Structure formats: structure tokens, C-alpha cells
């Protein structure tokens, strides 16, 4: 069984990640040493069930770990969040065959094997907005042959498995997930990720060229209409972990801002900036938003762990609100710090670029508001 993590271990990892974060951000290089640290600490087995040798953690513990590590390096925290999300779902709330879910669970425990869902495509965008994937799974005598391209594949340089969203070539196509070991012949990673924020997340393109998988690796294929039902577990886990991640970025920015206010003493003032009421108010407003984030994340995660699933709308509200609060915290710190905050040498500049990525992560905020509006209007 994987040894349970200690809070001190997570804090130490976050500090180590923070020391390397600026360089990884500058180069856009994947933080392999950070993933090695996660593996050594047993965190890749965190949400694997105990019967498979994992730690059996629920959403509350997973969110706490992701949030703390995001204070050090949100790119690595995102890689971990996506991995924990998959294990949090596939062992409990999915249609996966037991043999497949047990195999990836044991691989995470014994080898620290990373997994993520590969869903987004150049033509389709995110499948959550509808449409058929261009990635095709063709039946073969032994199983399936996969052709296609996935973009924004977080953690791709270190993934052992991809859960590939595809359609079949049947007369009446099914769509869904196939489990693909990414060491398979025909899998190719194109290093395309060069974004404003979360630059070290390794969210490259993954190309599938005649990739063969056994029949039992089609872990969840359904008719199109069956995918239109809300997935409460997917939404709750995803939104909570993303809320925790971006909240962690804001906490790192707030910690820097507090130290700046305490130690910066302009000659014209003759006292630290913390003596000024407007700085005291700004720090206090940030504390208010972070306190609300902490309570909402903690309570929604506790509900999930108790089996009280939030509605899809409520889970979306959590991610939207926590993310907007996090962005406001970082923007306020930047505004009051002034020009130095936008220097590439200043971590606030990186925190600002990282935190605004929260508006892009699904569920995007327009979709959350529109879905809630349609429900309220009975449409």
C-alpha cells in the first residue's frame, strides 16, 4: 500500500516547486523533477482506493493538496489535479470495467503512473459544448485502431495513460473513452504548448496514428444521446480541484503582497506601506475573498465525500466564483504594487498570467451563467 502523505511533505514539496517555478515558466519546460517529487511522496496514489493499495482519499483531501501545491507551482498542481480527478471518478462513479480501472489504479500505486483525459481537438474544441470528435476508433479483429489528434493534453511528457475521447466508425457511431497506454506504437507528442500561463504544464498535442488497443480498452462507449445527461461526479471533482488550484495561485500572490507591504518603506513616507489605510484595506479585502474561497471549496468537497452531490449548476458556481475571487486578489496586489509587479523578475507577474487561465478552464464562465439562466427560465 502507498504510504500516506504528511502535511509537512506537501508543504516541503510546495516550497521546492516555488524555487523552480520561475525558471520553468521562463523556458516553458516540463517540470519532470516536480512529478518525481509527487511520485516519491506517494501523492499519485492519493485517490486510488485502499483495496488497490492506494490511500483512498476523497475530494476534500485532494483539493487541499492541489491548493497547497499550486502555491508553489500551479502547472505541476494542474498535472496532479487531472490525475487525481480521473482516479476519483473511474473507481467509483464510472462505467469502466473493473479490470481496466484496477489496472490503472495499481499502476499508479506501484509505478506512479500518471493518467489524464485527452478530449480537446483542433476542430471540435472542448467536447463539453457538443459535437462529434474527429478522433476515430475503428474496430479490428483484436480491438480498436485509433487515429486523431488531441490538443491541450496536460502532463503529456509524463503520462503513462491517456483516456482518449473518440467516435467509432460504426454505421451508428458511438462516442466515448478508450484507455490508451501512451508508450504504444503510433503515439506521438508534438511540443506545441507555448501559452501565456501555466507554461510548465506540458499541455502539448498528442497524435494517434494507427494506435492499436485491445477490445477491453474501450472503457466507456455510448450513443450520443447518452452523453447528454449531466455528469455530477465529473463536474464536482473537476470544478473543485480547479477552484483549489487557482485559489492557491492567489494565496501565493497574497503572501508576496503582504511581505512587500510590510517591508517596502518609501523615502517619501518614512514608514512601511503597511501603515497606509489603503494597503490595509486592500490586504483585508483579499483576505475576505480567500476566506470565502476556503469555506466554499471545503464545504462542497465535504458534501461530495459524504455522497451529497451538488448540482451541475452549483459546482459551476463554485469554480466561477472562486476563480473570479482569485483573479481579483492577484489583480489588486498588482495594482497596489505598481510597475514593479509587472517586471518579469517579480513573481506577481507570473501569478497574474497563471490565474487568468482560470477563465479558460472548463466550465467557462459564460457557459455556467447561461446554463443556470436557462434552468431558472424553464428553457
Automatic annotation (TrEMBL):
Ranges of residues in domain Acyl-CoA oxidase/dehydrogenase middle: 121-211
Start and end residues of each Acyl-CoA dehydrogenase C-terminal domain: 242-361
Origin superkingdom: Bacteria
UniProt entry tagged with the keyword Ribonucleoprotein: no
Pfam family, one: Acyl-CoA_dh_N
Domain Acyl-CoA dehydrogenase/oxidase N-terminal: 14-84
Family matches, as InterPro entries: Acyl-CoA_DH_C, Acyl-CoA_Oxase/DH_mid-dom, Acyl-CoA_Oxase/DH_mid-dom_sf, AcylCo_DH-like_C, AcylCoA_DH/ox_N, AcylCoA_DH/ox_N_sf, AcylCoA_DH/oxidase_NM_dom_sf, Mito_Isobutyryl-CoADH
Keywords tagged on the record: Flavoprotein, Oxidoreductase
Identification of the protein by name: Acyl-CoA dehydrogenase YdbM
Protein species of origin: Methylobacterium iners
Amino acid at each position: 500500500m502507498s504510504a500516506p502523505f504528511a502535511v509537512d511533505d506537501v508543504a516541503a514539496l510546495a516550497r521546492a516547486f516555488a524555487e523552480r517555478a520561475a525558471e520553468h515558466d521562463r523556458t516553458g519546460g516540463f517540470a519532470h523533477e516536480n512529478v518525481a517529487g509527487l511520485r516519491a511522496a506517494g501523492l499519485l496514489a492519493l485517490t486510488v482506493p485502499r483495496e488497490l493499495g492506494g490511500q483512498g482519499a476523497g475530494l476534500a483531501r485532494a483539493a487541499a493538496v492541489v491548493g497547497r501545491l499550486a502555491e508553489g507551482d500551479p502547472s505541476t498542481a494542474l498535472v496532479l489535479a487531472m490525475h487525481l480527478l480521473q482516479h476519483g471518478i473511474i473507481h467509483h462513479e464510472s462505467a469502466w470495467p473493473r479490470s481496466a480501472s484496477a489496472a490503472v489504479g495499481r499502476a499508479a500505486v506501484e509505478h506512479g503512473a500518471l493518467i489524464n483525459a485527452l478530449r480537446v481537438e483542433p476542430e471540435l474544441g472542448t467536447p463539453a459544448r457538443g459535437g462529434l470528435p474527429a478522433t476515430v476508433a475503428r474496430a479490428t479483429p483484436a480491438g480498436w485502431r485509433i487515429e486523431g489528434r488531441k490538443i491541450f493534453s496536460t502532463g503529456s511528457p509524463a503520462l503513462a495513460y491517456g483516456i482518449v475521447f473518440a467516435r467509432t466508425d460504426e454505421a451508428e457511431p458511438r462516442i466515448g473513452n478508450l484507455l490508451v497506454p501512451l508508450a504504444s506504437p503510433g503515439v506521438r507528442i508534438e511540443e506545441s504548448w507555448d501559452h501565456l500561463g501555466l507554461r510548465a504544464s506540458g499541455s502539448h498535442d498528442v497524435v494517434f496514428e494507427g494506435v492499436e488497443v485491445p477490445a477491453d480498452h474501450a472503457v466507456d462507449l455510448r450513443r450520443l444521446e447518452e452523453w447528454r445527461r449531466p455528469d455530477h461526479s465529473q463536474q464536482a471533482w473537476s470544478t473543485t480541484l480547479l477552484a483549489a488550484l487557482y485559489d492557491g495561485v492567489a494565496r501565493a500572490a497574497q503572501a508576496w503582497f503582504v511581505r512587500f507591504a510590510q517591508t517596502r518603506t518609501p523615502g517619501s513616507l518614512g514608514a512601511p506601506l503597511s501603515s497606509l489605510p489603503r494597503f490595509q484595506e486592500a490586504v483585508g479585502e483579499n483576505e475576505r475573498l480567500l476566506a470565502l474561497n476556503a469555506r466554499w471549496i471545503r464545504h462542497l468537497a465535504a458534501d461530495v465525500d459524504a455522497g451529497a452531490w451538488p448540482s451541475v449548476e452549483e459546482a459551476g458556481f463554485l469554480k466561477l466564483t472562486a476563480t473570479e475571487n482569485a483573479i481579483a486578489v492577484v489583480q489588486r496586489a498588482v495594482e497596489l504594487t505598481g510597475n514593479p509587479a509587472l517586471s518579469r523578475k517579480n513573481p506577481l507577474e507570473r501569478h497574474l498570467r497563471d490565474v487568468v487561465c482560470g477563465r479558460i478552464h472548463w466550465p467557462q464562465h459564460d457557459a455556467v451563467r447561461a446554463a443556470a439562466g436557462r434552468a431558472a427560465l424553464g428553457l
